[in-house]
Amino acid sequence: MNPHDTLALFDDQMRRHAQPDDAHATLHLTDGVLRQTSTRQGWNGILWSDLDHTTADTAIANQISHFAALGHDFEWKLYAHDQPTDLAQRLIAAGATPEPTETLMVAAISDLPTTTPPPDGIHLHPVTDPADVDLMMQVHQQAFDTTATHIKHRLLTQLAEAPDTLAAVVAMAGTRPVSAARLDLHPGTHFASLWSGGTVPDWRGRGIYRALVAYRARIAAAHGYRYLQVDASDDSRPILSRLGFTALTTTTPHLFVVEGL
Question: GO molecular function, one example (predicted)?
Answer without folding.
Answer: acyltransferase activity
